[in-house]
Amino acid sequence: MNDRFITRRESIHKMFQLSFGVVLVGGIGNPFIPGTALGETEKSGWLVEGVGEKTGYSVKDLTRKVFDAAGGIGRFVSKGDVVVIKPNISWARAPQLAATTNPEVLEAVIELCQEAGAKKVRIADNTIHDARRCFAVTGVGKVAEKTGAELVYPRDSMMKEMNLHGQRLKDWPVFTPMVEADKVINLPVAKVHALSELTLGMKNWIGGVGGRRNALHQDIHETIVDLAQFFKPTVTLIDATRIMIANGPSGGSESDVRASNRLILSNDPVAADAKAALLFGMKPEDVGFIRLGNERGLGASDLKLIRQIRVSL
Amino acid sequence: MKFRHLIWLRRTCQALFLAFFVFLVVETRLPPDAYFDYSLVSSEAKGIELSQPVSFFFHLDPLAWIASGISERRWIEGFGWAMALVVATFFLGRFFCGFICPLGTLNHMAGAFRPALKGKTLMAANQKKDDRKIKYFLLTAILVAAVLGMNYSGLLDPISTLFRSLALSVFPGIGIGLSTLFKGLAQSDIKLFNTIGYTAENLAAPVFGYGYKAFQAGLLIGALFLVILFLNRIKPRFWCRVLCPLGALLAVFSRYPILRLEKDESKCTHCGACVKSCQGAASCEPGIVWQNAECLACFNCQDSCREKALSFHFKWPMERAPGIDMGKRAFLGGVVAGLSVPLFGKLDGKMYKVSPPELIRPPGSLRESDFLARCQRCGLCMKVCPTNVIQPTWAEAGFEGFWTPVLVMTGGYCEYTCTLCGNVCPTGAIEKLAVKKKIQAPVRIGSAYLDRGRCLPWSGNGPCIVCEEHCPTSPKAIYLREESIAGADGKKVKVKLPFVDLKRCVGCGICENKCPVKGRPAIRVISAGESRSPENRILL
Questions:
Q1: Element of type H or E holding B498
Q2: Does A249 touch chain B (CB under 8 A)?
Q3: C-alpha–C-alpha distance, residues A40 and A29, integer Å
């Protein structure tokens, strides 16, 4: 398969072709085809998996390669855009513990956005531990300093009550930087979680809201999908360079971590999570929020419906 | 040798030291530089160090040093400055009070700003009075109590008092006001207000703290601070003359002044200018004996005298100054108080009969008796804590431990890889810990237990696991078992039930803090199991 994806012009052609095809398939009644989102422009679900095969591969180079395979960063970020990157830096844990997004991946993404001419790149996450400690311990602070990206301190005054229009979540305080941006890049880390099974891209949006987040657990899958429906990222890049396979989501020991050397980039939040679930030896359909995301039309959990590219380094 | 410009030297020193003190209060915080990389700190033997010497003024404080040393019967390290001050005081008198003490400077300013006393009333207020003996009484009481193992010097020590007042009352008070303002601006629909609020918050938050910082005894501490400042309307530097035990201690030490006030009675016109300007009521006018021990070395008298009848000189050989004006009654009263307060303090039995479950001390705290012997109740640990979990006690530690630090988990929690409180503690009541040691030992501050009646899954009210999710240890101290629990409709539902493994629990309290059952959470931390106390352990 070719490394390059399609250009904007080609994508419009593709879109017409695909939507035609989808109408056909949908007509036969395939249960895995989401109904509502199909008419939307970017429904041509695609996914790029980047694999670091050689030992000592460069995580930054792999990140670039993955974006190049998807058509280049210019496809997602235009000149003058305000880009918000949402990593998962909820815990004040050192990078090697895999509780947080790999700072190298973050750095590469910021640089790509800057190269694409973004006016401003902001790193925002409503952390669980004290944010200043999270910034310093996860290595994200260093990245911000190096790249000049703005590190947003999540504060009370930045939480604004909004209607999420969800099944379970209606009025809820939203971390405003997430919605005050031209482009949003979701940059989660892949790890296990006792209640939702996994913490991936869709669940990362719990860091996009404030309020009584600890009550979301009472209906975790439904609320994750509510959030994922509200926050629609331009693109999702799941950091699975190393994954946490036990003691999640906070981890705390290197024995909880396994190298996976993968990055998953997709425009379909459900498909990205589905692909990452496979890394944990799980069937996407067994993970509640992936199944529900598919049912509610957020994306496709059946990877057969997704155009996949694999690149390696 | 004459010193005409000593008054300006004094004012400059006062301004600098007060500014330095306030600066250190501000700097007693998690390093605000988020770009600072301490990703490796948890694997190092070194803890997180603050860039500023925030405990400088405490290490300059001989009262803190002597009182905690006596009560713990041990040489407390790190007080080189205090020793130097004692030696200097022998020869220079209470120059600390006049030049350095930041609370003294504030009192000085409060007395000079729109003074309540003028003319005759001021003359009368600045005469030698018996109330000066109160400070010797307090000093005796503190030192005698220290011999009995109780150290409450911090309650009255000016450095502790000022730090506590600023850090736990003044700064948080301003901070809460600003936070409310910024939130109002941020929630406005006008874009300009948002920008102004955001920018102002970025500037103010590192100084006044991020979000709301609040302390449970803040109101009382602030009120007492105001009282101290308003006392200057009764007489100038009321606190320094009448109450300050550190001033009393330094007075005891100022025995051989080589810097002496020379009075030329023949030039004196008895205009009273020197008396009116005197800060210490130290009998500066010619004709009576200068009270070296009461003199705050402000040099106002020399400056105010138009006839040049008063002047300070370095005089050699040194001669012994008249003793302090303590009096038998103040001394005996001090002894009685010093003996009775520790004994009465134990009457509530909090420390000796039971282990108060809510008394959770910061990580690295010494065992209770040693802890109380050293703790200055200064509030450094409370100010530096990034989660605002450390609070001054009311009654949790009994009468003896009033205003000592306690962790209230509903307000914050102890960050698993943070050791800032121990790193700033001036007397070592909280041990300096490396993050590595805190995690590996592990240092336990208590242990969590479940209240199954409140817990959502245990009580049949549905899934939760928030406590397990936040548990920072690896493997987690809170583990889950899937069971079927009947809900209100009698139908059994599969839920994951949390359990606590006491062998792993360190008592950090994040489970209690994050539990969705607010106020009195379904999982709570009690002091039982804390590693500092052999008596309060649970497991064999």
A1: strand B492-500
A2: yes
A3: 19
Largest interatomic CA distance in chain A? 53
Q: Which residues of chain A are within 8 Å of residue B474 when distances are taken between CB atoms? A: 247, 251-253, 255-256
| C-beta of residue B485 within 8 angstroms of C-beta of residue B515 | no
**Chain A residues with CB inside 8 Å of B471's CB?**
250
Structure tokens at B296: 């705050």
A33: pLDDT strictly greater than 60: no
Smallest CA–CA distance, residue A210 to chain B, in Å, is 13
In this prediction, residue B23 has a pLDDT band, given cuts at 50, 70 and 90, of: very high
B47 vs A contacts (CB less than 8 Å)? none
| pLDDT (tens digit per residue) in A186-240 | 999 999 999 999 999 999 999 999 999 999 999 999 999 999 999 999 999 999 9
Asked if A151 and B34 come within 8 Å (Cβ–Cβ), the reply is yes
Residue A79 has pLDDT above 80, yes or no: yes
- pLDDT of res. B41: 61
* Average pLDDT for chain B: 90
Q: How far apart are CA B526 and CA B512, in angstroms?
A: 10
For the residues A156-174, what does the mean pLDDT come to?
A: 92
Chain A residues whose CB is inside 8 A of the B456 CB are: 218
Nearest to A204 by CA among A236, A247, A179: A236
Instruction: Kindly indicate the confidence band of residue B424, based on its pLDDT and cuts at 50, 70 and 90.
Output: very high
**Rounded to an integer, what distance in angstroms lies between the CA atom of residue B397 and that of residue B368?**
9
Q: Do A157 and B36 touch (CB under 8 A)?
A: no
Token pair for B463: 């899934």
For the whole model, what pTM was predicted? 0.89
> Which one, of A120, A132, A118, A127, lies nearest residue A87 by Cα?
A127
Pairs of CB atoms within 8 A across A/B: 133
H helix or E strand, kind and range, residue B21: helix B6-27
